[in-house]
Amino acid sequence: MPSMAHEVLVDLFKNRPSLGAELLSEALGVALPSYTEARLVSIDLTKIQPTEYRADLVVLLLDGDIPSGVHIVEVQLGVDPRKRYSWPDYSTGVRATYCCPVSLLVVAPDPAVATWCAEPIETGIPGFVLRPPVLGRAAIPVVTDPMEAARRPELAVLSALAHGESDHGAAIAAAVLPAVAGLEQRSR
User: What is the pTM of this model?
Assistant: First the structure.
């Protein structure tokens, strides 16, 4: 069963579907296709086979009405060797479903878990090695600007979770607290 910390992180990306694409591009330097909308779609990646796979979040990037990309957000709070098999399956399955490029964003706040997640996954198919982009603590931006926090409150909360105990903690809190007051109203 997913933990509260896991669900909070998933909800940040669910609340702002474009957050994953923004972080893939801005924090991790991953080139994404152009898009005009980021839309949540079904997280159910189940195939007819008895094994059921569910990603934490699947976001379809649209250019008008045409899918231009899809990204999968996976929150990883611990080492789980099964992910070495499910992440390639998620990636190829969602690519086949939407017939467009796919990206995988693994959010792993713990540095040791982030290191494990970033290890290349050998699939056994020559040339097909999955190298998951991992958003670890070091890659999460430090948000201390109240205007930036107000513009992207989910990113500000992520910053507080990652860097709240650092030297920047007080400045982050000062920026984040007013910004999160509007989150509940926005989600209604």
Answer: 0.76
